[in-house]
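Give me the fold.
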Amino acid sequence: MPSLVDREDQPYVGYRATVGFDGLREVAHRLAVIAGALGERGVTPAGAPFFRYLVLGPGMSSLTVEAGVPVAAPVELGEDYVDDVVPGGKYVKATHRGAPDGLAAAAAEVLEWGAAEGVRWDRSQAADGEHWTGRLEVYRTDPRVEPDATKWETDLYFRLVD
């Protein structure tokens, strides 16, 4: 069952790309690159890595996403990477337990629940698709520690209109 939570602004370093579903794995690999670059600079991540969904193209034909790692303060990693902030505010949170291939269905369940509850998501519609202010998958399980994907936990966050 989803719950309402308050989140503070969260600075992060990320990699942004517009891809099809088949390109998500390549974007996900950037998380390790970002974590390594932070480690080289002596910066400890301020939380679990995540995907931030910015634009969902018409019919999910394309996705503009960011693979991000939270940091306590902005960090410059170079032109391929962005420093940004996931905005704080009221979010709906749900936890998916299992492999990543179940995340789309888990997100759909949250959106259906929100529709039934009359929730107003912080999103807008444009010609290029659905723009989200705060839609995240936070990967709480480190696959190097727990290789069994059926045991992975991912928190889904969807920002509400203020």
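The chain has two helices and ten strands.
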